[in-house]
Structures are given as structure tokens and as C-alpha cells.
Design brief:
binds nicotinamide-adenine-dinucleotide, single chain, 6-stranded parallel sheet, binds zinc ion, 12 helices, 7-stranded mixed sheet, 17 strands
């Protein structure tokens, strides 16, 4: 019996308030309205950004269904949807691509102006939610809320992908892999023979390393306070691994000494103000570029002396690796299918969706890179 046009009752991980465990609840998922798509989830990764939302580092309105790195199958579509149909394999996009705004029309910008609503208001583009639980509306997260057996997204927040793709792997193209890889190849534009430093060796940081290596960097210095991350970093392409806690000097000085005055490209992939400054300082003062990838704590500032930029450094950042989401995700999946890169290094754990709290505990304990939840 078709579920199209009907409310679906299913399980979702609801977060009722900040810093609490997820609660697996029965939720009602309303049918998609015009220009919306309802998706049956198949696999979802756990990213540190979800944890930032749990603990308040990233602002979200509660109650909320988190999750933003996933893959699934279209269950039904609303009126006017043309780019996907029921049965299609898809990846939801936490940065939409409306295709019409100033940023979408810009050759390089990717933070579509339609992102703002889904990020701050916890709704779909029409300003309302499709989830209810125990009679109360539940907020969406980044317009996609993937920790649910079914979700509804705007058409601009979903991309159709190759029907043969393994969803339990390509779900990482929905955030971690793409963000890291693109930060190296699109945002920093890492050059052949260059020297790079990557701060933070989680799923996103390892993907930065994969991108630096693909771009032909000759030295990739991996930095983390958890030395258990070093083996994977080397597997991804790091040439050296260092732990700031092993040195008396600030890590930026250690790296500057190792690299004749500083690296060509540095990346902060943790989400801390002190490491953002260390990453900036460890790139060469006259010809280095530093990229902010980690999400900084909500509403905090960093003060810096502009002389750090005056001599020629470049300081930049970006979301989703600078990729225009709806155009690029199907191409990245095609590249994965053509074996241009592997995602296996990033996947350390696979758990049934109901064990989501266990997955977050692994991340917080530094024992996982990516945990994939299967539905
Ligand atoms: P993760 O938690 O898996 O990895 C972070 C790593 O940083 C860990 O290995 C940890 O040991 C290390 N670390 C922590 N404190 C450190 C310190 N003081 N010095 C050195 N290393 C330290 O996280 P992730 O999922 O890889 O995400 C990394 C960051 O990227 C997060 O802030 C996340 O929110 C952000 N993110 C940004 C985007 C984007 O579009 N810009 C997308 C996804 C994730
Ligand atoms: Zn993410």
C-alpha cells in the first residue's frame, strides 16, 4: 500500500533539550508539500557538527531532529518536483542550492542564501515543520534532519545520485568527505609540491588530507592531541603526525621550524578559537593560506593583529568544501563509483540507528572517525 500523501508514523531520534541523550520516539512525518520531497533514510553518518548542536556550541531551536550526513531513497514527492522521483537514490544537502540567488549565480560562492532560514529557524523553506512528536511540532536541522526513518526536505536540498551507489558509504559525501576534500581542492586550492598542515584528524580532517594528497602536496603534517588518530592520518596521506602536547613551544612555532618559516596551506578542522589562531600562524606570513573548516563556538570572537595578514597571508573558510551542493554531489558520487577515491578509511563503526547514543559516545571518547547508522 502506497504511503504517498499520507502521514507516516516512524522512529526518529528526538533531542528535547541541550546536552541530553537522544530519545528514540515515534514521530509523525507529514507528506511533502509543493516543491518538497519525502525520503526514506538508509544510512546516516555522525559528524561533530551534530554534537556541536547537542551541546550548544552551534545554536539550534529545540526540540529538534539532528543529522545532516546521509543517503536514502525518495518515498514521495510534492507538487512541482522535477529533479527527483519516488525510488531514486538521493543525498540530502545541508547547504541547499536554489540556483537563483546571488550566491548560487556566483561562479565560486556556495552558501546559498536559502541556507539561512533552515539554519536559524529549524523549519523548511515555507517556515513550518513536517515533524510532530507527542503532539508537539519538532524542528528540522539544516533543512534535512536525517536521524529519522523518514524526513521531508525542500527540492533544493536534495540531489539524485547513481542508482548503483552503496548508500552506507556515499552518505559521507553528504558532509564529511566533501567538506574536507573540497576545503583542500576548492577553497585552499592546494598546489602540487606544496606543504600543508591539518589540525584535527576526525572524518573531516582526514578528508582534507585526502584532498591535499590528491592535489599533489608533497608534505602533509597532521596535528592532533589524540595520537590514536595518527595511523588513519597516515593511511589517508599524512607524511608526518605531531601532537602539540609533546612540545614545550607553541605548535605554530614547531611547524614553522619544520617548514622553513611556515606551511603553504593550513586547515583548522576542530572548531576551536585557539587552534584557528595556531593554524593561521603556522602558515607562511608572506605566501601562506589558512582555511577555517571547523565550526567555531556560537557567537564568540577572535581578536587578531592585522599585521598577520598585511605581509601577504590569506585567511579564509567555507562550508561544504566550497561545492555547489546540488550540482556537485552527483558528480562526487560518480567519481566514487569510478574509484577515484575511497571512503573506507573514514568508516570505523556501523551501528543500527537505535544505538545512536552509543555512536555519539564513541565520537566524544575519540574512539571513532565516522560511525554510520543504518536504518
Ligand atoms: P571530530 O571530532 O571527529 O575531529 C576533531 C579532531 O580534533 C579529533 O581527532 C580531536 O582529537 C582533535 N582535537 C580536539 N581538540 C584539539 C586540539 N586542541 N588540538 C589538536 N587537535 C584537537 O570532528 P569532525 O567531524 O571531523 O569535524 C571537525 C570540525 O569540522 C567540527 O568543528 C565540525 O563541526 C566542522 N565541520 C565543518 C563543516 C563545514 O562545512 N565547514 C562541515 C562538517 C564539519
Ligand atoms: Zn557535518
Amino acid at each position: 500500500m502506497s504511503t504517498a500523501g499520507k502521514v507516516i508514523k516512524c522512529k526518529a531520534a528526538v533531542l528535547w533539550e541541550t546536552s541530553k541523550p537522544f530519545s528514540i520516539e515515534e514521530v509523525e512525518v507529514a507528506p511533502p508539500k509543493a516543491h518538497e520531497v519525502r525520503i526514506k533514510m538508509v544510512a546516516a553518518g555522525i559528524c561533530r557538527s551534530d554534537d556541536h548542536a547537542v551541546n550548544g556550541t552551534m545554536y539550534v531551536p529545540f526540540p529538534v531532529i539532528l543529522g545532516h550526513e546521509a543517503a536514502g531513497i525518495v518515498e514521495s514527492i510534492g507538487e512541482g518536483v522535477t529533479t527527483v522521483k519516488p525510488g531514486d537514490k538521493v543525498i540530502p544537502l545541508f547547504t541547499p542550492q536554489c540556483g537563483k540567488c546571488r550566491v548560487c549565480k556566483h561562479p565560486e560562492g556556495n552558501f546559498c542564501l536559502k541556507s539561512k532560514l533552515s539554519q536559524n529557524q529549524g523549519s523548511l523553506q515555507d517556515g513550518t515543520t513536517r515533524f510532530t512528536c507527542r503532539g508537539k511540532p519538532v524542528n528540522h536541522f539544516l533543512g534535512i534532519s536525517t536521524f529519522s526513518q523518514y524526513t521531508v526536505v525542500d527540492e533544493m536540498s536534495v540531489a539524485k545520485i547513481d542508482a548503483a551507489s552503496p548508500l552506507e558509504k556515499v552518505c559521507l559525501i553528504g558532509c564529511g568527505f566533501t567538506t574536507g576534500y573540497g576545503s583542500a581542492v576548492n577553497i585552499a586550492k592546494v598546489t602540487r609540491g606544496s606543504t600543508c598542515a591539518v589540525f584535527g584528524l576526525g572524518g573531516v580532517g582526514l578528508s582534507v588530507i585526502i584532498g591535499c594528497k590528491a592535489a599533489g602536496a608533497s608534505r602533509i603534517i597532521a596535528v592532533d592531541i589524540n595520537k590514536d588518530k595518527f595511523a588513519k592520518a597516515k593511511e589517508a596521506g599524512a607524511t608526518e603526525c605531531i601532537n602539540p602536547q609533546d612540545y614545550k613551544k607553541p605548535i605554530q612555532e614547531v611547524i614553522a621550524e619544520m617548514t622553513d618559516g611556515g606551511v603553504d596551506f593550513s586547515f583548522e578542522v576542530i572548531g576551536r578559537l585557539d587552534t584557528m589562531m595556531a593554524a593561521l600562524l603556522c602558515c607562511h606570513e608572506a605566501c601562506g593560506t589558512s582555511v577555517v573548516v571547523g565550526v567555531p563556538p556560537y557567537s564568540q570572537n577572535l581578536s587578531m593583529n592585522p599585521i598577520l595578514l598585511l605581509l601577504g597571508r590569506t585567511w579564509k573558510g567555507g562550508v561544504f568544501g566550497g561545492y555547489k551542493s546540488k550540482d556537485s554531489v552527483p558528480k562526487l558520487v560518480a567519481d566514487f563509483m569510478a574509484k577515484k577515491f575511497s571512503l573506507d578509511t573514514l568508516i570505523t563503526n556501523v551501528l543500527p540507528f537505535e544505538k545512536i547514543n552509543e555512536g555519539f559516545d564513541l565520537l566524544r571518547a575519540g574512539k571513532s572517525i565516522r560511525t554510520i547508522l543504518t536504518f
